[in-house]
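Weekly modeling sync, notes
Attendees: S.R. (lead), two postdocs, one rotation student

Agenda item 3: backlog of single-chain predictions. S.R. asked that every request posted to the team notebook include the full sequence so nobody has to chase files. The rotation student volunteered to paste the first one in as an example of the format we agreed on. Action items at the bottom.

Example entry:
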Amino acid sequence: MIGRSVTGCFGCSIVRLAMSLIVALGLAAPLSTFGAAEDFRALPASRAEITLSFAPVVKKVQPAVVNVYASRTEQLPRNSLFDDPIFRHFFGDSGGSAGRQKARSLGSGVLVDPSGLVVTNNHVIEGMNDVKVALADQREFHADIVLRDQRTDLAVLRLRGHGPFPYVELGDSDALQVGDLVLAIGNPFGVGQTVTQGIVSALARTQVVISDYGFFIQTDAAINPGNSGGPQVDMAGRVVGINSAIFTQTGSTVGIGFSIPANMVKIVVATAKNGGKRVRRPWLGASLQRLSREIADSLGLDRPIGALVTDVVPHGPADEAGLRHGDLIVSVDGQTIEDAEAFGYRFATKPLGATAAIGIKRGGRPMTLTVKLEPAPEVPARDPIKIAGSSPFAGATVVNLSPAVAEELSIETPKEGVVISDIANGSQAAVVNLHKGDVIISVNDTKIATTRDLEKATRGKRYYWKISIARGKQLITTVLGG
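Predicted structure, as returned to the notebook:
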């Protein structure tokens, strides 16, 4: 999170609120009829005008907004300072037993179903195994983690309790317009449930590196640490976004916050309700690139708008629809596509089993292609294996690479091989700095094509380990001691 610190503008919020109340009362005249600035100034005509408030919206939504407390117990390394009996005598054991300490996380969430389904950010509960949820009425419940979706930074919890619970409806984020009033509700800095007000500052922010689907609602409603996972609601009391990040250098709000659109949230919630463990989304079967000014000029475009097709997977949906390398995607079902990230969001929120009309330009000529909305195939099968022994991969869980796995882990290349899907805390794989998503190319010059190949190649002891992995667009080769 980057940015500059600036002071808040309380007066600006008052002006915005005053203007919204004038419009709500039907007192606003057409812009052309207003004269000088003093024409706007007038005493309230009634007591009702003075007492207009956001309180009815808050009253409707607040019971469904929750605080999320997550933790996990970690085993400390042997000979750690924290394991020293004298340290434990004076300072305790950090909430755990000897040789253990607890890691904790705090965030917000919102109930979206009377059965007790809670939506929050994945980063609030990531790596945690003990989750508690506190409601606005001070009731507390343990919660099970139903679904984690790292690609959207969303997670769904289920309260261990008897409903029905208060909940809030998910609205249509595509109906939002810049300038619409919104409220953000959450637990900033752990001080307790807090409501802040602002407007939608921008839509479809795609250059925000928070999740794989870079498509966010920007607001100036104050959002601070602890607000993560809380709802952003419209004036009808519907959730239009889940607060996810702020733009700052100080750690506090500067009036630029980002939320995940409700239409993306709906996909994740629907998966959780249907018992799914992974969110299945439409697969295009093509690689796309954001247009630069230079590429736009070379294509004869006056603006760098659209998503350029750089690669098409044989026999995938894009290939079958007739999409080609060099095509420029400009729309999905009539909605304009500004860049590759915008296409990813629009396409991912389409329902499986249907079709989408993809508007393209090919050689400057407009065309429309019909693409089937189907999930990425999981061929070959994952065949997950957790590597044991003393190799650098010990503690890593690996799976065979398929289009489904590649999409899930955001891997563009290579097209086949073995990929790390998980790494145990404190394992040898973690110590040597292997990453989730690393594609294993070879071990001691032996090509690795399947998880069984890697299991075989890592058996026994070696004087050295020569490993080659693909990480993003890098090929990394290193030699480690045995």
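Discussion: group reviewed the output briefly. The longest strand covers residues 100-113.
Action items: rotation student to repeat for the remaining queue; S.R. to check formatting next week.
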